[in-house]
Amino acid sequence: MKKLIAISGGILFSVAFAGAASAGVFEEKMGSCLAKHANVKDSAAVVLECTAAGGKLSGCTVVSNSAGGKGFDKAALCVAEVLPIGSKTGVVKVPVRFPGS
Q1: What does residue 23 show for φ and ψ, rounded to 5 degrees?
Q2: Tens-digit pLDDT profile for residues 45-75
Q3: Which of 45, 47, 79, 88 has its CA 20 to 30 A from that of 38?
Q4: What is the pTM of this model?
Q5: φ, ψ for residue 73 (rounded to 5)?
Q6: Rounded distance, CA 68 to CA 70, Å?
């Protein structure tokens, strides 16, 4: 659990300091993935397990999904392509929250 919290904090920290351009790319991808795979009005929390290397995530699988069958698993996997992970390496768990509207 502590590792999950540390990774979450690391992702938020990375997004906060990645710069406006990177944050804009992330927000655009989040919106695009959500619109493509799930209902933007619904909320969900998905946890992915991925391999981190070179500032990117790969080989992600869904560990948990609070809204099964609604496409949030696919949206989270889509978003993982652009999540800034910083210098983390190895297998990491990454929480992705979709707040809904």
Answers
A1: -65, -40
A2: 999 999 999 989 999 999 999 998 999 999 9
A3: 88
A4: 0.75
A5: -65, -45
A6: 6
